[in-house]
Prior knowledge:
A: 360 residues; alpha/beta; Rossmann fold; 2 domains; 8 strands; globular; C: Rossmann fold; binds thiamine diphosphate; binds magnesium ion
Amino acid sequence: MPLTEIGRYSLRRLEILDENGEVDPALEPDLSAEDLVKLYRAMLLAREDDQRMFKMQRQGRVGTFGPNTGQEAAVCGPALALSPRDWLVGSFRELGARLMRGEPLTHSYLFHNGYEEGNVFDGMERTLPISIIVGAQTLHAVGIAYAMKYRTEKDAAVLAFIGDGGTSQGDFHEALNFASVWQVPVVFVVQNNGWAISLPRSRQAHCATLAQRAIAYDIPGVQVDGNDALATYSAAREALDRARSGGGPSLIEAVTYRLMMHTTADDPRKYRTEEEVEQWWKRDPIPRFRRYLESKSIWDDAKQAALEAGIKEEIDEAVKKFESMDGFKPDAPFDHVFGTRHESIEEQRAAFLANLEGEA
Amino acid sequence: MPLTEIGRYSLRRLEILDENGEVDPALEPDLSAEDLVKLYRAMLLAREDDQRMFKMQRQGRVGTFGPNTGQEAAVCGPALALSPRDWLVGSFRELGARLMRGEPLTHSYLFHNGYEEGNVFDGMERTLPISIIVGAQTLHAVGIAYAMKYRTEKDAAVLAFIGDGGTSQGDFHEALNFASVWQVPVVFVVQNNGWAISLPRSRQAHCATLAQRAIAYDIPGVQVDGNDALATYSAAREALDRARSGGGPSLIEAVTYRLMMHTTADDPRKYRTEEEVEQWWKRDPIPRFRRYLESKSIWDDAKQAALEAGIKEEIDEAVKKFESMDGFKPDAPFDHVFGTRHESIEEQRAAFLANLEGEA
Amino acid sequence: MAKMTMVQAINLALHEEMERDDSVIVMGEDVGVDEGVFRVTAGLHEAFGSARVLDTPLAESGILGTAIGMALAGLRPVAEMQFSGFSYLMFPQLEGHGSRFRSRTQGRMTVPLVVRMPYGGGVRALEHHSESREASYAHLPGVKVVIPSGPRNARALMAAAVRDPDPVVFMEPKRSYRVFREEVPEEPEIGQIGRARIAREGSDLTLVSWGAMMRPVLHAAEEVTSSRGASIEVIDLLTISPLDGSAIARSVSKTGRCVVVQEAPRSLGVASEVIAQINDRALMHLEAPVNRITGYDVVTPYFGREMGYIPGPGRIRRGIEETLDF
Amino acid sequence: MAKMTMVQAINLALHEEMERDDSVIVMGEDVGVDEGVFRVTAGLHEAFGSARVLDTPLAESGILGTAIGMALAGLRPVAEMQFSGFSYLMFPQLEGHGSRFRSRTQGRMTVPLVVRMPYGGGVRALEHHSESREASYAHLPGVKVVIPSGPRNARALMAAAVRDPDPVVFMEPKRSYRVFREEVPEEPEIGQIGRARIAREGSDLTLVSWGAMMRPVLHAAEEVTSSRGASIEVIDLLTISPLDGSAIARSVSKTGRCVVVQEAPRSLGVASEVIAQINDRALMHLEAPVNRITGYDVVTPYFGREMGYIPGPGRIRRGIEETLDF
Ligand SMILES: Cc1ncc(C[n+]2csc(CCOP(=O)(O)OP(=O)(O)O)c2C)c(N)n1
Ligand SMILES: Cc1ncc(C[n+]2csc(CCOP(=O)(O)OP(=O)(O)O)c2C)c(N)n1
Ligand SMILES: [Mg+2]
Ligand SMILES: [Mg+2]
């Protein structure tokens, strides 16, 4: 059918640091050695903590959790671009970013052991807790960004994470639409890790990329190599800067891979091949970043050894601290159902406590 | 940021019959005189029935309804492309299409007077009733299309309507995504009539067109002049043919205008100017189609007079028939809550009937 | 003092609260320039502008989801659902997040917001425009559900809801929007969420209801009083959750007889909970079964049939008489 | 006869129904290749292929909305919600459409589908994975809500649900998925939706419950019987809507005492409706208030605290004793 062209769109992909640690100098971000090491440390800490939690889970010392192994660059790169005045609105697979925001290691143990206390820490004001209902958090991010715009808060923005599976949810569409209509400072990062439990990305959505969803809302969108921490940082940095200066929302698709199981309750051998996983281990974001640091002479084996030892010690201590915690107030849920006092709740608290005594 | 281009998209708009009734011969669809007259008659009937219902509503003879005046081409053009084996899944502003599917005139009076009987007619099997929850029906359309594919029903497809406001709903996104992942035979027509009650299209969505939403799902999308019945027919015809032959879903944005109020309960003077409405009256789909018919020597004043008289008579009779209807079974809701018999429902029916007697 | 309809009274409360506190913002479909399809937000857009009186895209989950974000960031959004029949689209946001941030963070993050929605039948509206589904919200821990019955309490409770630290579902009986006027004091009044009101004192029977049913209920109470001299106490629940069980129990302990009138379908409605509360707190005072007069467990009929399905004064009166005669 | 877990028994019913009728299809997140996160759909993908055992995108409204379309077009979809905590996303589709097509078209268009969902606590799962919110669905006219309690009735009721002409919400108590086995007959059994079951006969007290609570309930009944020789009748509701009120009333009329045990929060739960039914049908037989032993009206705690919030055998036993001693 011959017709008039009324729109033309282009989509791009950003890669800076390749699988061998070679950097494209034209695209290399201007990061201080300190920041680079901070980013590297964050990725390694997230990896090591994941591995420790995995062991603890297998020993029955924490409950089910979803490892972020393999996705450290997709998570920590954007988090490095955050200022304390920005908000972080995560889903459930951004351990690295949470730790960078000041969440203590103990807290993910607590959370995954069934305690709300795991969500509560000093400095949490602009970091939302883990959000389990897939997709819902993206709307909270847009609302927060609206509040910033309403209060004419300058130089701050919201960074929101979601998975490739999450892009199928209606809430994600509504979030993108509200954000673009309102032109509020929010950056959406889709961690496309190839899978939503057992569903491969290709059957989650028919589009060639998830970044092209941005076109539907006329907002900037880009795909990045999600295992390239320089690319994830740069893309997020650019989008956050734009957002902070009134340029509205953006969408970043970070193409990465979940190297471990969906959660510790999952067995990925049921739905994917060892070969596929092998291929992705070769693209592991951490060794390539180490090679980059080494090539810049910021890093060497001694520093690596010291870092590993330091991280191990930090985790050991956190685990010890966590395992000595007790005194979880049994009737805390009654304290926090409402911010006001109600007779019916207090009556039920009394019944609950009386029953506890009955059990004792 | 210099990057690799990984995608390139183009969007087009189709116009065939302009506001003056001039046709682009290269694009003119190959429709028989009979079909052209059928389409014209359908548009005129929808218009006249709207006007009659409006009067009846003002006289308290039917309840609130949403007129389709101005949108007849957006509605009837695609409906002309339907075969009886196709499904029609409408929203609430497709009177013309419903009538073309064999719904009697009486039925919209019944429906808008508060009777489910308005949804029940011979030949209704593949025409879903009016759907009021904005957006929801698009998912039903995809499910029906899936059933067709599952049953390898050939040469049939589903045509689904939604409004510009409806595109903001999560369900619409989920429908487009499921349809594209499943590659099922469904065609979505967005009747972009410029307004969702008081919200202009420009504040409903930030994108320049609604057709570009198709890019997000890698499905064919096109914008058409929604007041050009040849364009709406042609675009729907092409998309339905593609769907019927296994080519999957499509999205059509028909740009039209709601010339009257949102519903009879609405006062559009609160939110839009007379001038805007005037402008759009000039683009009225019906006179331009009449001029086209005349230019093809299919039509003349005598035929017009006969058609108008015929339509008036048809509507008169339908109104008379509707107004003589009675005997609406008071306890019908108890008959249709479940397809199985349940004691609790029958107990409540008995109480209901006893109460009716008490009132008498 | 001025005589006002419920629409005007809620509108007054919104004006007052927005003037008092610039963190209060109003949002929803058509609440701005159009002033709401029922004109509840009349004048707000003009007075406070489009950043505080926000016409949103047509997406209820989007409205509540972003309102939750705003509340987390320190605003106090008052979000409108155009009709309660569309509000289920935001149920997941309310159930999953609005109601949980406080407990999830042990009080460190809170969601002070109001979701307003017209609900209930009797206005000859299309499908999905006349349901009464307050029970679905009242079963959610962490959410308060308020249902005013008249202009004065609507204004006071709306002010309370806006100032409340928790998410409040504020259900407005649309049938009562304009049918009567009441004196509403000049000075702001702040209602108390969680408290029922004795709308009429009496000693022979307790009549419990809420929302639009209060009008036929009070009418029936008058009728029975004048026809046979029975003394009927009427309780207007006002808050559905948390329910004021002790107010109900006190009255029933005194009267020994109770009729509950509910517009919603019968099973699992608020009337069931009222009966359960009486069972828990005052069963041994009952001289007759509690009589629940409710809608039926059928899909809400289109409006041609709806009036037979909503309790009316005749049915309520007969119910009272049966219970008195038991 | 074979001893099976509930997971195996539901799986058996799905195999049988799919073999019997090629309009039955299974759909949801991870139900295909992965065979469901609880393996309820084990073997189906292999046996029936990916057009009948359909891994869907991650969108619950999409799943139910398309299932409704399929049902309208003659299929019988069995849609899984991975956990009931995510099912509210499809509540609008069920409330607005699944439950209404029959009444909307006076029986000309129907929606025969099943929505399966694991629900309830006690498995140390993350937030949103342990709620018990059956009341939200049971308050919807036009929807049936079935909750099996053991392998045998689960298999029979699943077969009935698949064959039922209406939308059936089939809530599977995940805590009972694998903890015990039961003999399940070779031949298909078809349960009866709408009927409660006397799980244990008795004459001194009626104990009413459903789902995962049936295990501690039966345990407590045994204990009290052996400790003090009381004869306890136990009713397993099996269908929550439409509720078998007359079965409850018959039993309570006989025993005069009743305890209802519910995992869900207290207010507006199914226990309230059970009490209301007793009020309507058997109040004058009661020798004590009905004792409702329920969860509390707090946001479901994370699993570190959940066990204190779910009724356990001790609390149930004490409840029975109190009611016997009243
Ligand atoms: C609304 C909702 N549906 C289902 C689930 C169960 N679930 C948890 S994670 C997950 C897959 C998520 O995939 P994706 O968004 O790609 O994130 P990833 O797990 O890969 O990080 C599913 C289905 C959920 N948490 N929320
Ligand atoms: C889910 C939902 N929300 C709100 C409404 C109320 N409502 C009815 S029509 C309408 C506007 C629809 O706009 P659009 O989709 O553009 O269709 P149009 O009315 O212009 O034909 C609104 C808000 C509804 N019916 N359903
Ligand atoms: Mg993923
Ligand atoms: Mg429109």
